[in-house]
Amino acid sequence: MVCESWKTKLDTYLDGELPEQEMRTFGAHVRSCHSCSADTLTRVQMKRKIQGAGRRFTPSAELRRRVQHSIAPKPQRSFLPGWAFAAVAAVVLVVGTLTLTYVKTRSGRDQVYSEIADLHVATLASSSPVDVISTDRHTVKPWFQGRIPFAFNLPELQNSEFSLLGGRMTYLDQTPGAHLIYDVRKHHISVFVFQERSFGARLDGNALAPEKLPFNMETWSQGGLRYFVIGDASTVDLDSLARLFKAAS
Amino acid sequence: MPVYRCVSIGSELADGSFEQLAMPHFERLYNFACWLTHDRQEAEDLVQETYTKALKGFSSFQPGTNFRAWIYKILRNAFLTSRTGLKAAATVPFDLEGEEEILPAVKETPETILLQRSDGQLVQQALEQLPVAYREILLLCEVEEMSYQEISATLAIPMGTVMSRLSRARKTLRNSLRPQLQRG
Questions:
Q1: pLDDT of residue B116
Q2: Which of A29, A157, A221, B129 is the most exposed place for a label (fewest CB within 10 A)?
Q3: Reported ipTM exceeds the 0.85 cut
């Protein structure tokens, strides 16, 4: 009976993850118990086998060269004499100070929008776009519990043209979020919900809708969450769905 | 008797450049990518994408925190949103918690001799056939020698889930090896 309780912790012991005191007690027990000692040996051998089998693939020198080239700092070259460089630098500094915030926000914003568009396309192209398939918001919403670090409300769709197809987890910049898919007159619309703080200064308040995306998109911030509604449906449809979400939140 | 792990170099080099921090993980990341994708070309693309994304998001990396867990997390998330990753997640439930009851219990007998005799091929095949959630956690623990805390950060799951998922992954691997070892 005593050994059974030891054996449940055997892997944790071999991973070196038990508290220090327990590690010592466990070690003493293993040395004195034939059964646990045999199990320990078996599991150590299994660990060694997995280590050996797992270290299997070696990258080519060409891949290393490509990766290194892509991340290497780009050399800064100057073809100007010192005084000209100083003058140019002064102008750049003034102009840069004025435009830096704008450009930074805009490029960050465009990057977020294109990532959202990519997620929308990639999901719809997959053979199984949703992980939880249900038209019932009371089924879809609880599915996200424990999967994403925030809660959000889904709108009631009765008397509307929209129907909920389901949802899935998604990631943007390594941050988890919710991805919901709605249908309106055979058009699929994605609704993404992330924590606003994940975007830092890249999106501010009710950021402007993007101009150069191949889809219509609406985005807003509400209650600490950032919502994106994207699809090939009309802007009127997207706006209607966005209003339903705003009312539900 | 415990198998001690390497200490992560992430925090020690926290002030280094991106290249200094990232390139020491290159070979291991590629190995991990191959195990996830089962395809060398896809693994190359995944590693390239990981480094590009990591460089782009390097400003969000907090110095002093674990760089290795951070870059592995980027690779894993890139995999999950790739075509193969989406397919893997769609064909096999990614979250396998709560399935303990359906796994047959392994009666622990000394399999020492059989394991000693077996070649790495059997273990490789068994690893390949594991569901991706089990394969990745075993690789992070045994091959990458990550601590439970690092695995928790990499997979974005609680420590308790790390322990239970690892336990199930090991049990599933042992169960799948058992008949083959006995045949061999």
A1: 59
A2: B129
A3: no
